[in-house]
Structure formats: C-alpha cells, structure tokens
Write a structure and sequence with these properties.
Length: about 350
C-alpha cells in the first residue's frame, strides 16, 4: 500500500513541476493498437497481488495453494469469454517418482510411469494445466503461449518468512498472460492461426505441465511457435543455458538493468525477434531488449518440451536476481513499468505470429 501511495505522490509532484512544452517531443507518433490500451497496471497488479499473496502459500504443485491459483486462472479465462482448449479448462494429469529417499525424479511420460508403478513404493502428484483457446482461420495451425503458475510452496524449517511467494517467478508472467488474453479477446475477427493460452503446473518440479501437454498434443508439427513467459519483472542475470545451466559472474553484457530485458529465441525465430524490436520502437514501449539466440536443447524453463521437438521458441525474460527461489521474491520488488511494457511487447509478438501468412 505504501508503495502505491508513494508512487502516486511522486507522479503528482513530477506533473506539477514539469512545465508543458518542456518534455522532448518524439520524432514520430507511436503506432496505435486497441489491444495495447487494455493492458493496464491496475489489472496486472490485482492478479499479481492475489497470486503472490501469503494466502496462496507459494502455489506449490499438488498442494492447496497451487489448486487455488488454478481455479483463479480458470475463473478469469471464463470471465473473459475465452473457451478452454479441450472440453474443460483443466488438463489434469499425474506425475510419478520412485520412493527412494534421495531420488526425487517426477516424470509424466508413459514409459517412466509404467516402470515406477512396478516399484514396491512410488510417489504420485496430481496436477493440472489450465488452458484457454481462440480459434483461428487456419484452425489446425497453432501458436502456444505459456507461463507456469506453480512455485515452491512453504518451508516450515525456515526461520522468519517461510513462504516462497514467487512474485517474479512466476506470478508476474501469469498476470501478464491473463492480460494478453484479455487484449486478444477484445480483438474483432479471428486471428489467422489458433492461439492456445497455457498456464503450466509443475514447472518447478521438472517442467511437468508443459512436458505433459506437448507429449499428449498429437501432431506437434501443427504448433508453429511457442512463446514463453518466465520471470519478466525484475533486473537480472542471464544464465548460461547450454550445455549446462551455469550462473556466470555478472557483467554489464549479461545483465538486464533499468528498462532492459533478455529477448531470447531459437534460430528459426530470428525474424520474429527482430520484429519484437521493431514493435518496441514503433509503439514506443519503454523497454530495451538484449537479444540472443539460444540452443534448442537449452534447459531453463517450460519451452524445453517444445524446442526439443523442433518447435521454434521465443522467451521474454528479465534474468536471475538475488531473490530468485528465496522467500524474498515478493510483490513489493516488482518493476511495474517494465512488467507492463514487456506484457505489451508480448501481446504484439503473439499478434504477429498468430497472423503470419
Ligand atoms: Zn519460473
């Protein structure tokens, strides 16, 4: 609350002290898109505040808080008039792991499940992805856009704050994706390709939700691109993703600060990456991309299930920070301006990919 009032006072003070005519005029007027007007701080903040609140107990996969988050996303999609991708909004599934003390290896693929179920003891997690769907002119060509909604839950051995709220990881992306869906729902006419809005469960366990979705999708050649949102609202470091996940020393080169973010894509989406940069200029969004091509075997987030099957991916990411996977990943540390402008850029890139000839 204090932050909101503080920002308001600062804004008022700036308005009072800036004579009209003093601001530098842009050379060219920004392009206009009705969907962009729908993406507002107020709504993103409301979603994020709820999803990252202590009441959701860190949204752990398979636990009460995770299920409440899933219900919340379903209710919001329904409210927006967005249909589910299949018969229901929930894609329910189970993940299994051997019961050895130190070996926790949850899997969703059929072969592993058959193997684990033959063991004298095994673990079972009941999970659910949430999906929304907008049908395109070319019904059987898809763009999937996804963000995981699960996080790390509660650790009652921690002294002090025991809740992993996961505001940046990944409540912010869920709030952003709900806003992108809202902006799309307001568009008149069908996109050329069908769009699937996916809210993944079990990412923090072993990318379970996205893996289950892709494994059971059918013909993955019909998925023309996957856009991933994971950690999009702070400043941070770009890890090395391939051949291993390594956290390097921070340098100006590999860190996104101020209004910068990491714009990552596999090689086939190089053109799409360039268009994102063009959009940012044309619509005068207050963000600066640090573009990079990543290998399709790169580990790091839910895109892996897609990229390993040859589906091109695009990932909006602001990087790792000292609060990453700690109880310090709280809502009051979110960079709202950055989050909103990345949400807008995401909406524009989805629109481009969904309407590509
Ligand atoms: Zn994450």
């Amino acid at each position: 609350m204090r932050r909101t009032i503080g920002s308001f006072l600062l804004l008022t003070a700036l308005c009072l002290y800036s004579p009209a005519g003093f601001a530098k005029k842009p050379d060219k007027k920004p392009d206009i898109d009705a969907g962009l007007e729908i993406i507002r701080k107020q709504t993103i903040e409301a979603h994020l505040d709820f999803l990252a609140s202590d009441a959701l107990e860190g949204r752990e996969a398979g636990k009460r808080g995770g299920r409440v988050a899933a219900e919340y996303i379903r209710a919001e999609l329904k409210e927006l008039g967005i249909k589910p991708f299949s018969d229901t909004y929930f894609q329910s599934f189970e993940a299994y792991s051997p019961a050895h003390e130190k070996q926790v290896d949850f899997q969703v693929n059929r072969d592993s499940i058959v193997k684990y179920k033959q063991l004298p003891a095994y673990r079972k997690l009941s999970l659910q992805n949430v999906t929304g769907y907008i049908e395109g002119e070319r019904k059987d060509e898809y763009i999937v856009i996804g963000a995981h909604y699960d996080h790390l839950g509660v650790d009652d051995l921690l002294v002090g704050d025991q809740i992993y709220n996961g505001a940046d990881d990944n409540a912010a992306s869920v709030a952003a994706l709900l806003q992108v869906a809202r902006a799309f729902a307001a568009n008149r006419g069908k996109p050329s390709r069908s769009i699937i809005f996916a809210f993944w469960d079990g990412e923090e366990v072993n990318y379970l939700g996205s893996e289950y979705f892709v494994e059971n999708f059918g013909n993955t050649a019909t998925i023309k691109a996957y856009i991933n949102l994971d950690m999009i609202s702070r400043d941070g470091l770009m890890p090395i993703l391939y051949p291993e996940f390594i956290i390097p020393e921070a340098t100006a080169e590999n860190t996104a600060t101020g209004n910068q973010f990491h714009l990552l894509y596999t090689e086939p989406l190089t053109k799409a990456g360039e268009r994102v940069q063009q959009d940012i200029r044309n619509y005068q969004l207050n963000i600066e991309p640090k573009p990079a091509v990543i290998a399709s075997q790169s580990r790091g987030s839910d895109y892996l299930a897609f990229s390993l099957r040859g589906i091109p991916i695009l990932w909006f990411f602001t990087g790792l920070h000292p609060d990453y996977h700690t109880p310090g990943d709280e809502t009051d540390r979110i960079d709202w301006d950055k989050l909103i402008h990345i949400t807008k850029a995401t909406y524009l890139s989805l629109k481009q990919l969904a309407n590509e000839k």
